[in-house]
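Supplementary Text 2. Reproducibility record for the structural model of the 498-residue chain.

All settings were left at their defaults, and a single model was retained for analysis rather than an ensemble. We include the record here because the model underlies the residue-level annotations in Supplementary Table 4.
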Amino acid sequence: MLLVMLLAMLDNTIVGTAMPTIVGDLGGMQHFSWVATSYILTSTITTPLYGKLGDLYGRKKLFITSIVIFLAGSALSGLAQDMTQLIAFRAVQGLGAGGLMVGVMALIGDLVPARERGKYQGYFAAVMALAMVGGPLVGGFFTDHVSWRWCFYVNLPLGAIALVLVAIRLHTPVNKISHRIDYLGIGLLSGVSAALVLLTTWAGTEYAWDSPQIIGLGLAAVAGLIAFLWVEAKASEPVLPLNLFANRNFSLTAGIGFLQGFAMFGAIMFLPLYQQLVQGASATNSGLLLLPLMAGMMGASIAAGQAISKTGRYRLFPMVGAAVMTIGMVLLSQVEVGTSKWTTSLYMLVLGIGMGLIMQIVGMIAQNSVGPKDMGVASSTSMFFRSIGGAFGVSIFGAIFTSTLKDGVSSMPGEAAGKLLSGGTQVDPAVLAKLSPAELGTFMQAVADATGTVFGWAVLFTVISLALSFFIQHVPLRGPGGPAPEQGSEEEKELAKA
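Retained model, structure tokens:
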């Protein structure tokens, strides 16, 4: 499970470092953004589908299938001869990636009782920290000393080992019950997911927020969502059972996951930019400077997991985690040009502790809120809301960052401001090198102000998340000695009422 999680997390971080070299080798700069968009699009669309199909037909087959598809996409991406091929093969890779994290979380939910699951929080956090910090370093090494193609080929040996171990050592119940597939629901959910991903990816970059394309995608997402809810309410075996949202804890964790993804992914992506443009860190060192964030997340996750396993109590952790995340966001909203790297590291440590106290635990609560029949869809829905929240956060905070940066450099003379802002949040180092000391100081102040503004807005979402966490109800975690409630059992009906 950890190997597969490493594959899924590593691919999100290792490729970004190599993209300038890839564009220089394959060309197609005008399609640069689609290398990431195609992967995000297909992985987001398939995430809820893998969860539901795993519930229906057994998780092991779906899990193995997702690994195979992911490895095939990785091999093909490494062999790509032009940008069009790379975009298409990254989409194939994303089709498999949608089932990797869902499979891991759902299988852990099947194999490990909720009371014992907290012990594994530290393992998950350690793999996330390793991928987020090590990914850029490994990607940079391959790009500089071997070939950018090894950023994709590296998945093959790791994936092969994971595939063999899963095939031989993973034993799950075989589901032989006849089922009806909700094809219409799957199609509508895929359409809504695609519209949301494209909207959040293109808004403010490819197209203006008030452009017909973005407005059209927004209307399509709303119309598709209405149709999806209507279809799911009537389906005999819906791809996303709406009755799950009648459960208070499940609905709250979905909302908290969305808000946390919005605040966390939307704001954190600007930290390396601030460190490089204001604090003078290199691209590689800016990745290492995120280590306090990862250390805080890993340490807090381990401590929380051990405490939950010993006491069986978990309700306090989302509240404390959201509160500490809010403090971390407030601190980071105060960054200035003169803020030292040590001070920034301390602020990131606080934010990481808050993240560690809430991220994995929210998923555990969602799983504990449903019966084993819906374990997969509960895991995938939790991840889906977090992913969509992150996509919205990156898009909206990107617009806030660019707008604030534009205001900050508007006083610069000549064409310098226009050239600096031509790439949105990406700044050409060649343009920076031509700035006078005074212009460079103005630009650095603008970047610091924009970064602080983004984290200031992120506070709003962590505060709402904190408010929601107070309504989580403590439901005893199922332990190794007690059977998990079946769908429709008296215990689950009581959970639904709550």
